[in-house]
Amino acid sequence: MIRVRTFARSLVHYRTWSGLLDLAASLLGFALLFYGVVFVARYWFGNPIPVAEISRSPKALPGYAFYSLVRILAAYFLSLIFALAYGYIAAYNRRLEAPMIAVLDILQSIPVLSFLPGVMLAMVALFPTRQVGLELGSIVLIFTGQVWNMAFSFYSSLKSIPRELREATRIYRFSSWQRFFQLELPYSAIGLVWNSMVSVAGGWFFLMACEMFVLGNRDFRLPGLGSYLQTAASDGDTAGMMWGLAAMIGVILLLDQFVWRPLIAWSDKFKFEQVESSVVPRSPLLALIKNSRILGLMRRKWFMPLGERLAMRFAHHAPEAPAADASDGKLRKLMALALGAVALAAVVYAVVHSAVLLGRISRGELQLTAKSAVATFLRVTASLLIASAWTIPAGVAIGFHPRLARIAQPLAQVAASIPATALFPILLVAIVRLGGGLGIGSILLMLLGTQWYVLFNVIAGASAIPSDLREVSDTFRFSSRERWTTVILPGIFPYLLTGLVTASGGAWNASIVAEYFHLKDHTFSTLGLGAEISRATDSGDFRLLLLSTIVMAAMVVTVNRLLWKPLFRLAENRYRLDV
């Protein structure tokens, strides 16, 4: 009896301390979040800083890391909203699907610097008396380096949803909202999580270009890790570069532990399979959140009732609308005509303005741009082939073995997030000493920036292959070749295709830093469209910037029509998990 009472007292004591620690951790989290929001709002809506002084002292790194993390997270949430909306419309609108995918392929291939002049000048003009103009400009530029592969991933997932699941939603008369939240979003969760990781890694990769850049005679700088690394690299400060990289790696590892690993473990429950997996990803933080008494109480009292009310609200089908009278029809037509006229006027203005700029291009500049386009295309192709050679087997191995993923995932995240431009001075010096040049070095830099798109998508595809299919291959003792040709490659094909498309766009995008590089007082460049764009941006030559961007877009559209579009159709019609 005494032992029972002692155990009961110990249990009560444990629960009391557990509840107090839970409450303290929750209050601390909310306090830090509130303080962070207030701090950022005070800085953003303060007076603009014309040219921010970037300190190279390690003591400034925590503040710089906070500023950069806020910009990347803001750009990520903006990218997520855009990706869901754009991918949904492209997947379900037959008329708009082809042009929307072509536009998406073009936009993901256009380098960040091609967006830079219009974005920054527009944001500064909108908020001339506040720092928020420069901040929003930087966030939008990071957004242009993050969003495209997420949109491709969501679109590809929607196109590969099994037919029987769609038929079930029709039989049970799901509304559009119910179908989105209970089928489409959960089915695409695994791909979205892994592409979110590579998107954030892409944001870190282009951080140096988005926080510190020159536009004509104007110098734009923002305090952050990107500007810190850019300043250290420009001055040849090796110690400063090492400190900056260490701070960035620390932030990336914290994100892995507190964000990505819990999301991977959470998204595993949405895997489409007939039997339960024997080995599943786990996260101590996710287990802690599930067992939290404070969060559990909030979930039961607030979130669950709110979710149920929203579900009931959206479950009711809207009654059929009465037939519109003639006046309503005429009003809609007039509004459509007005919007079409405004859009047409904007297009005509852009075309005329572009034609005036392009009319000043000489024949020699046209020939140089054509040669540059061929050179960059060959480098992009080489980087894709090299990336595929190692990322496909490595990604399959990581996706099939969660224990290996726990080790390899954070390492891949760190490697993908480290700006290759910070490492490029060392690589460039080594290549020059070995007798190479920037022509070879640019392929290496493209590879460092684009191979991760293929790797993360292959990992997502391998993770999403149902366990029952893998068990069947084990039961019937498939050879390695049979396993790859009948299970692995068909299973990962839609994800692999998404990775290759986004890697191709990333390679074109990375050409701006791969083919044109500043090192101390020297500028290294090679023949290529990326070098043309970077050179035109530095000198403020909008003619060559526009010409190079148009040529790059034309090449991307050609590749999209001849290669990616047929492959997407093949993935939709043949490689999907239908039974």
In short:
The chain is mainly α and 579 residues long.
Task: Describe this entry's structure for a reader.
Helices cover 80% and strands 3% of the residues. It is mostly helical and 579 residues long. The strands form two sheets. A two-stranded antiparallel ribbon has the order 1-2.
Q: Could you list the spans in which at least 5 consecutive residues all have pLDDT below 50?
A: 10-14, 318-325
How many individual helices?
22
User: What is the domain total for the residues?
Assistant: 1
Q: Tell me about the biggest sheet? A: 2 strands, antiparallel
Oligomer: single chain
- The CATH topology corresponds to MetI-like fold
CATH superfamily: MetI-like
Please write out the topology:
Layout: H1 2-44, H2 61-92, H3 94-109, H4 112-126, H5 132-159, H6 163-171, H7 176-187, H8 189-205, H9 207-211, E1 212-215, E2 218-221, H10 225-234, H11 238-267, H12 284-291, H13 293-315, H14 326-358, H15 363-400, H16 402-417, H17 420-433, H18 438-464, H19 467-475, H20 480-514, E3 516-519, E4 522-525, H21 529-539, H22 542-573
Antiparallel strand pairs: 1-2, 3-4
Helix pairs in contact: 2-3, 2-5, 2-8, 2-11, 3-5, 3-20, 3-22, 4-5, 5-8, 5-20, 8-11, 8-16, 8-18, 10-11, 11-16, 15-16, 15-18, 15-20, 15-21, 15-22, 17-18, 18-20, 20-21, 20-22, 21-22
